[in-house]
């Protein structure tokens, strides 16, 4: 309940994130379910804390019932020419 004795319902969502490193060792994190939802950090913990904040901001502008359904990740093999 809040100060006005109103019950506030919170919804928890689980979203996929991608974690990569760039050539300088910076962790780049993105959430593909939200457009433009990405950030970075010098450590993985810093990057994960930041992406949670960014996801919260992105979710304010995007109705959660309009998100695409996450299916999964796959890797594809690409052979580069010699």
Automatic annotation (TrEMBL):
TM annotation in the entry: none
Signal peptide: none
Organism, as annotated: Methanospirillum hungatei JF-1 (strain ATCC 27890 / DSM 864 / NBRC 100397 / JF-1)
InterPro entries per record: HicB-like (IPR031807), TA_system_antitoxin (IPR051404), TTHA1013/TTHA0281-like (IPR035069)
Domain of life: Archaea
Lineage of origin: Archaea, Methanobacteriati, Methanobacteriota, Stenosarchaea group, Methanomicrobia
Domain HicB-like antitoxin of toxin-antitoxin system per the UniProt entry, residue ranges: 16-60
Name listed for the protein in its UniProt record: HicB-like antitoxin of toxin-antitoxin system domain-containing protein
Pfam families on file: HicB_lk_antitox
């Amino acid at each position: 309940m809040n100060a006005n004795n109103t019950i506030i319902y919170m919804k928890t969502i689980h979203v996929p994130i991608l974690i990569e490193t760039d050539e300088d060792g910076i962790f780049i994190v993105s959430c593909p379910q939200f457009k433009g939802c990405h950030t970075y950090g010098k450590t993985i913990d810093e990057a994960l804390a930041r992406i949670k904040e960014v996801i919260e901001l992105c979710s304010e502008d995007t109705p959660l019932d309009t998100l695409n359904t996450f299916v999964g990740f796959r890797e594809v093999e690409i052979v580069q020419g010699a």
